[in-house]
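Reminder to self: keep the SMILES exactly as supplied, no canonicalising. Ligand is zinc ion.
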Amino acid sequence: MADDKTLGRSLAPGPGPAPGAEREAGRPDQRGHAPALAREEPVGDAAVPRLELASWRERFGIVAGITTRGRDFSLGLWSEESVAQVMTRWRAVRTTFRPRFPGLVLAHQVHGTSVAWHAGGAEGWLIGDGQDGHATEARGLLLTVTVADCIPLYLTVPGRPLVALLHAGWRGTAGGILARGVELLARHAAVGPADIIMHCGVGICGACYEVGSEVIDKLGATPAAIGPGVRAGPRGSAHADLRALLAGQAAALGLGAVSVSPWCSAHDRAQFFSHRASGGRDGRMIAYLGLPLA
Ligand SMILES: [Zn+2]
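Structure tokens returned for the bound complex:
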């Protein structure tokens, strides 16, 4: 595929979210540039049901994806489900990725803005606490975040072995986790925002995500002055399109390019887990990103 724009145009309507979600995801950001659409595609592997970005694999040699619901393939460790069942699925993830990724990073997430730098060289499970993002230049280290409506943000620098994966719900979006991730890459890898490209992955769309006044305030909009990515709803409520907000932040930070997934976790519950659409009862997916061993 030649570039993200070509990819975006070539996307045919098909299974997936309602057409409205695609329009939502492709809405122009505050500078008037519409982020390209980039659709994650199924990987034929029954052991670990998942979707990946073919364009990042082909262009950059990067593994960027997300697990799907499959036959109840929840990976939520900090949930009410039996740890033994969840760990069986995590072991399937390890087995699938181990030849290319001897190390796997995960953390207990807190909807914060802390992003960890991983120097690499480590093997096995690397389990952190209190981080909602990870970055590395190391090959063979698979970064993961758990999601079920929140947006996974995939960052890389074309031509450089460098990746960052962030977990952005409304709190992370309002708190500026994207800016924190970009700062971390500047500090550890000496790259500027314009060098960085970002993909906003599978998550809840604006039509499915009604939020109250507290969230609207934190996201920097008010019902009287709805900002980019926040639309007025009935009774003082509003709908927030986190990916549109994050694409707007990326444009303001000066990132080189942004693409957005057309998939909505709540529109398509046959495929994904959705915290919101399930009333909080659903499992968790993991988004993952890494530079495989050559
Ligand atoms: Zn939706």
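Points to follow up:
Residues 4-290 form a domain with the CNF1/YfiH-like putative cysteine hydrolases fold (CATH 3.60.140.10).
The chain has one domain: 4-290.
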